[in-house]
Design brief:
single chain, TIM Barrel, twelve-stranded mixed sheet, 12 strands, globular, binds S-adenosylmethionine, binds iron/sulfur cluster
C-alpha cells in the first residue's frame, strides 16, 4: 500500500448538515449462523470469503476514523463472532481506547459468546448488545429459524461473568413476541441488563411480509405506562434509542423507533460493510468504497475518501413500512445493524 501525505489528519468529520460523525459501525462479516425472519431470507446468499476485507484492512480503516475524531466503534454483522480473527480486530482497535477512542462495543446474537466473551473483555470491550427476541425456546427457534435459546442464554451468562455490561435488543414483532415484552423487561431487570425494543425496518427482501409483523412502539410504550412509571432519561449512548427508567423495576428501557419517531437530525454515525463500502445512512444507497481508496492510495487516499463521504451523507432515511418494496435492497446484516 502506498504511504503518502501526513496522517492522521486532525480535521474532524462533519457532514453537509453540520452533524459531527463520531460513531462507526463495522460489519465484520455478512454471514450469520441464524436466519432471523425479519432480517434474512432462509436461503440468504453470503459473500465469498475472498471479497471480505482482511482484519488488517479493517484495522487501518478504523484507525483512520479514530484519527478523524470517531470516538466509538461497534463491531457487528452479520454475526461478528463467526468471523475468524474478530478478537484480533477487537484487540487492535482496543489499543486506541483512552487515546482517541472512548468505547469499543459489539452487537451479537450470543451463540458464540460462551467461548469469546473473555477475549472481548480483555480487548477492552465493556458493553455488548445481545439480540434476544424471545425467552421461549420454540418461539426463539421460530423467529431465528435455527437458533438454540439455551446456547444464547449460556453465552449471556458467560458475558456477564466476564464483566461485560449487557443490553438486550428485542425486535418487537406483532403477533409473535409482543406478549413477551413485559416478561422480557422483568427478566432483564432481575439480571441487571438493559432492554431496548426495536421496530422492524424495511431492509432487504426476507421472503415474507414485514408489514404483518410491524408493531409500532408508541403503542407498546403507552401500554407499559399503564402499569409502570416511565421516567425519560437524558442518557444517550451515542445511538438512536430513547431511554426511560422504570422506577418499579429499577430497570432501563430504550425504544428505537425509526418509523414512528424519526431520529435523523441527531445522526452521528456511518457504517462500514465487510467489503469496505462506507454507507452513509442505513436507509439510503449513498456509499463510498474505502477499501478501494486504501488499496489505491493508502492512508492519504482514505482520508480524502472520508472527506467525500461527509459531503455525500444524506439528511435523512426514507423508511416507510407500507411501501411495496423494501426501502433499501440490502439487508441489515450487510450494512451492520
Ligand atoms: N447478528 C447480530 C445480532 O443479531 O445482534 C448483529 C447484527 S444484527 C443485523 C443487529 C441488530 O439488527 C439485531 O438486534 C437485530 O435484531 C436487528 N435487525 C436485523 N434486521 C432488522 C430489521 N429489518 N429491522 C429492525 N431490526 C433489525
Ligand atoms: Fe443473524 Fe443478527 Fe440477522 Fe439474526 S438479526 S439473522 S442473528 S444478523
Amino acid at each position: 500500500m502506498a504511504e503518502a501525505l501526513p496522517f492522521p489528519s486532525p480535521i474532524p468529520l462533519i457532514d453537509g448538515f453540520g452533524r459531527r460523525i463520531s460513531y462507526l459501525r463495522i460489519s465484520v462479516t455478512d454471514r450469520c449462523d441464524l436466519r432471523c425472519r425479519y432480517c434474512m431470507a432462509e436461503t440468504m446468499q453470503f459473500l465469498p470469503a475472498a471479497r471480505l476485507m482482511t482484519i488488517d484492512e479493517m484495522t487501518a480503516i478504523a484507525e483512520a476514523f479514530i484519527a478523524r475524531g470517531v470516538r466509538r466503534i461497534r463491531l457487528t454483522g452479520g454475526e461478528p463472532l463467526v468471523r475468524r480473527g474478530v478478537t484480533d480486530l477487537a484487540r487492535a482497535i482496543g489499543r486506541h481506547l483512552g487515546d482517541g477512542l472512548d468505547e469499543l462495543t459489539l452487537t451479537t446474537n450470543g451463540t458464540r459468546l460462551a467461548s469469546e466473551a473473555r477475549a472481548l473483555a480483555e480487548a477492552g470491550v465493556k458493553r455488548i448488545n445481545v439480540s434476544l427476541d424471545s425467552l421461549d425456546p420454540d418461539r426463539f427457534r421460530h423467529i431465528t429459524r435455527t437458533g438454540d435459546l439455551a446456547k444464547v442464554l449460556h453465552g449471556i451468562e458467560a458475558a456477564a461473568a466476564a464483566g461485560l455490561r449487557i443490553k438486550i435488543n428485542m425486535v418487537a414483532l406483532k403477533g409473535l413476541n409482543e406478549g413477551e415484552i413485559e416478561p422480557m423487561l422483568r427478566w432483564c431487570a432481575a439480571r441487571g441488563h438493559d432492554l431496548t425494543l426495536i421496530e422492524t425496518m424495511p431492509l432487504g427482501d426476507v421472503e415474507g411480509d414485514r408489514t404483518d409483523r410491524y408493531l409500532p412502539l408508541d403503542g407498546v410504550k403507552r401500554a407499559l405506562e399503564n402499569r409502570y412509571t416511565l421516567v425519560a432519561s437524558p442518557e444517550r449512548t451515542g445511538g438512536p434509542a430513547r431511554y426511560f427508567r422504570i422506577a418499579e423495576l429499577d430497570a432501563k428501557i430504550g425504544f428505537i423507533t425509526p418509523l414512528t419517531g424519526n431520529f435523523c437530525a441527531g445522526c452521528n454515525r456511518v457504517r462500514l460493510t465487510a467489503e469496505g463500502q462506507l454507507y452513509l445512512c442505513l436507509g439510503r444507497e449513498d456509499r463510498i468504497d474505502l477499501r478501494a481508496a486504501l488499496q489505491e492510495g493508502g492512508r492519504a487516499a482514505l482520508n480524502a475518501a472520508l472527506d467525500r463521504a461527509m459531503a455525500a451523507k444524506p439528511e435523512r432515511h426514507g423508511f416507510t413500512i407500507d411501501a411495496p418494496t423494501p426501502a433499501v435492497a440490502r439487508h441489515m446484516s450487510v450494512t451492520g445493524g
